[in-house]
Specification:
2 copies of one chain form a homodimer. Chain A is of the alpha/beta class. Chain A has 2 domains: 172 residues, Stage V sporulation protein AD (Peroxisomal Thiolase, Chain A, domain 1); 149 residues, Stage V sporulation protein AD (Peroxisomal Thiolase, Chain A, domain 1, 3-Layer(aba) Sandwich). The first copy, chain A, is built from 10 helices and 17 strands. In chain A, the strands form 4 sheets. Chain A has a 7-stranded mixed sheet with strand order 1-2-10-17-14-11-12. In chain A, strands 4-3-9-7-5-6 form a 6-stranded mixed sheet, sandwiched between helices. The radius of gyration of chain A is 18 Å and the shape is globular. The two termini of chain A are 19 Å apart. The model of chain A has no long low-confidence stretch (mean pLDDT 97).
Chain lengths: 336, 336
């Protein structure tokens, strides 16, 4: 049986992550994971005429190179499963143009990488597909003008704000792989959690309850202790959201160890003045495809729980006074 | 083996559609399927303060009543799989708030209902879930101001235009069901097809190549003739797109019979002056959850191929001169 409890799955034949590639912008390249990224851009337009086209080029570059890194060509890829936070996920669907693979577009805001990896793993474990490409991206400048204001206005950022990561991460997930490769051994599919936060400049507070729900459910249903993992990383809660998640879980009787942190809280250096840290659908995927994947492949990490987190708002919904629902999906990645 | 060829699946244990519900606006209620809809709104604001909130209420109403129609409560639902064409699919994710189910958000524009039904069926056939709720929606007024212009401008519509359907459709898909219930016996997952169309007022032309690719692949890989089905309905190509699809397939040596038509081309009456017909993510789902589902449940139709079609553009992508990629996913629904 592959299902444990209501939301948690432990796969009988865990799929392998056989290739990964990350592309980031110049600010991210100067951050804490600088050396781990596969491609560091010198400017965030990537020689394109718009930020949106630049994001698409980053996304496509990550996809194509993840396939190369896996020693494959696109003919070997059954399906592209991808998403991003641009309206109508055009960065993802446009990146899939010209490739002869099935396409499944997903949207869970910045939790999309978790959704893609979990759904993709299920499709492989269920015998429907053999090799999948999962990817997500985000771009600071395209996100700012879509969700907030044009950069030219020079708006001041409040202290609770996060900085959307300019980055894309892609992984190839396959039914078979080499010994020593990281495998997706299971995970927990999240529920929508909405405690009524309406502050669009405090995404950490909007997403922390969903991260808390997902982590609590994962440990309860899997029967695993937090100490089972070498590293537990949420997606892009930022520093405040990460600390809130730790607090909320402690209230529920679950103490997270020192191995718990957040991709968004870790991605930038303090002196980069992003306030709470990074966010965006490209945050957890670019950190996974760089730091985590390389640390796992080199034997420095064996068991990682990655929990991409998403805030399911739109500019219109916030303007109409709606609260911000959050979601989080946990993926358990292990070298067996 | 459940996979045939590269993109087509025939399920060994086809899941059952055990409940369906449709909600439509007043214009749709006066259309060709008027009597089949479960709820016909008298005004398209549904007593809400904005078109976006009205769409969300329609979506939620369809979801909740599909669960009721299946004789279930939300506690029985494992997962909500849904999507729509609003930015960040807020109509779908906001509708899932307050329900204690896993949530997977999808985006394939107006092909989302096909993607949801296929992915949902695979998750059931793979043993990961038992009962799923699949739903999509769209709203004429929220779509117009998001994709085009505020209605208050009174812009003239060109002859190739379609009218976004104000509607929501939801179905409950389950591992087990009663004899005589329609079952999802398989389908074909689409690829992104882009022949370079840039006219945002001619979605039929943008989507027809994807519909053609999906239909051609479905018949080739499944080994079925078009005559196998009592009805072959694309999603929202409209009249021009439907005729173009027929033409393109004839060029490839595949003659579609008289049983081929399009939900968008059929949904409105000629005198309603929508030009090419209906479109939107709620078009194929509301037609399926009303006319098709009821005709199948009453024994008037036994084998239906539904092929929701989507145009993967955003307002920003069109403003930047990008072409419009299309996608289509085919679902084979049969009473066995």
């Amino acid at each position: 049986m592959q299902r444990k409890g209501n939301q948690t799955y432990i796969f009988d034949n865990p799929p392998y992550i056989i290739g990964a590639y990350s592309v980031v912008g110049p600010k991210e390249a100067e951050g804490n994971f600088g050396d781990y990224y596969d491609l560091r851009l010198e400017n965030d337009t990537f020689e394109e005429k718009s930020y949106e086209k630049a994001e698409c080029k980053m996304h496509k570059t990550a996809m194509e190179n993840a396939v190369n890194k896996a020693g494959l060509t696109f003919k070997d890829i059954d399906t592209i499963i991808s998403g991003d936070i641009s309206n109508q996920i055009t960065a993802s669907s446009f990146s899939a143009r010209g490739h002869d693979a099935m396409y499944l577009g997903l949207y869970s805001a910045c939790a999309t990488f978790g959704e893609a990896a979990l759904v993709g793993s299920m499709l492989i474990c269920g015998g429907f597909m053999d090799k999948l490409l999962c990817s997500t991206s985000s771009h600071f400048s395209s996100a700012e003008r879509q969700y907030r204001y044009p950069l030219e206005l020079g708006n001041q950022r409040p202290p609770a704000a996060q900085w959307t990561v300019t980055g894309a991460g892609a992984v190839v997930i396959a039914k078979t792989g080499k010994s020593g490769a990281p495998r997706i051994t299971g995970g927990t599919v999240g529920k929508i959690t909405d405690l009524g936060i309406t502050d669009v400049n405090n995404m950490g507070a909007a997403m922390a309850p969903a991260a808390c729900e997902c982590l609590y459910t994962h440990f309860k249903e899997s029967g695993r202790e937090p100490s089972y993992y070498d590293l537990i990383l949420t997606g892009d809660l930022g520093k405040y959201g990460r600390d809130m998640t730790r607090y909320l879980l402690k209230e529920k009787g679950l103490d997270l160890p020192e191995t718990f942190n957040d991709c968004g809280a870790m991605i930038f250096k303090d002196e980069q003045e992003t306030f709470q840290g990074g966010s965006g659908a490209g945050c957890s995927s670019s950190v996974f495809a760089s730091f985590i994947y390389k640390q796992m492949s080199s034997g420095h990490l064996n068991k990682v729980l990655l929990v991409p987190t998403g805030a399911l708002l739109s500019k219109t919904s916030s303007e109409q006074g709606e609260s911000i629902p959050g979601i989080a999906h946990a993926i358990s990645i292990e070298v067996l």
